[in-house]
Amino acid sequence: MLTEKELRTQAAAAVTAVHETTPLAGSITNFVTIDFVANAQLAVGGSAAMVYLPDEGTALAIAGQSMYINVGTLLPVHERTVPAAMVQLHRSAKPWVLDPVAVGLGELRTKLLSTARNCPPAIIRGNASEIIALAGLWGLNGGSAMSQVRGVDSTDTVRTALDAAVSLARFTGGAVAVSGAEDLITDGTCALYCNGGSPMMERITGCGCSLGGVIAVYAAVVSPLIAAFCGTQLII
Ligand SMILES: Nc1ncnc2c1ncn2[C@@H]1O[C@H](COP(=O)(O)OP(=O)(O)O)[C@@H](O)[C@H]1O
Ligand SMILES: Cc1ncsc1CCOP(=O)(O)O
């Protein structure tokens, strides 16, 4: 288990590493918040590139140091782009962040998020309802297929997603970041709660996606748990 001092030291080293190396964290993400995500990634010192096409997703998975995959607004092309990128990332053992926006909505989203189980992401980032529903979709403890994801918003509190988050982290061997009025980060053995931010962050779109994109930047240089911690601390 990390001590607070070790956590702070590793987080500080990750911030420095990002500034020194400008890691490329490519994204396949929704078109509602796409520029918000890119700007957040650039603001923390990373490099951003957003793509839609299958060959470009695969090329970016090869070229980048990490990747951010968000299923917020799916188009028919994503049926090929998303699995191709996931498989490439898995093959090259590169860290990537999955943002299971509105999991449970529609056939393609369900199919893509089920496929992600076979190419596990280093970090899963979502609100409480998304984390509970994804664990349900993957048949893991603490999950519920009945979790009511209301569009992209959460109807559950962060603490009710603890079991689901722990199960997902143990399954992937990475970390899970659950956002809300307080944020929870776990690697399946420890749970960190982070406070900050503002209730106004619920009243604009893109804070969650930006958090995911920023975590992907840190995932390029540090372990999943510390990457999730760095991203969360910088967004709130
Ligand atoms: N009520 C709140 N008070 C403080 N911070 C919040 C609140 N709601 C959300 N945030 C912050 O906004 C960011 C995005 O979280 P959230 O709104 O839960 O994501 P999503 O857009 O995926 O639902 C997180 O960093 C979280 O800490
Ligand atoms: C509103 C909306 N609809 C599909 S994706 C999206 C953006 C969600 O962004 P965030 O989860 O960061 O608020």
Automatic annotation (TrEMBL):
Pathway: Cofactor biosynthesis; thiamine diphosphate biosynthesis; 4-methyl-5-(2-phosphoethyl)-thiazole from 5-(2-hydroxyethyl)-4-methylthiazole: step 1/1
The entry's keywords: ATP-binding, Kinase, Magnesium, Metal-binding, Nucleotide-binding, Thiamine biosynthesis, Transferase
GO biological process: thiamine biosynthetic process; thiamine diphosphate biosynthetic process
Enzyme Commission number(s): 2.7.1.50
GO MF annotation, one: hydroxyethylthiazole kinase activity
EC class of the enzyme, as a word: transferase
Cofactor annotation: Mg(2+)
Protein name: hydroxyethylthiazole kinase
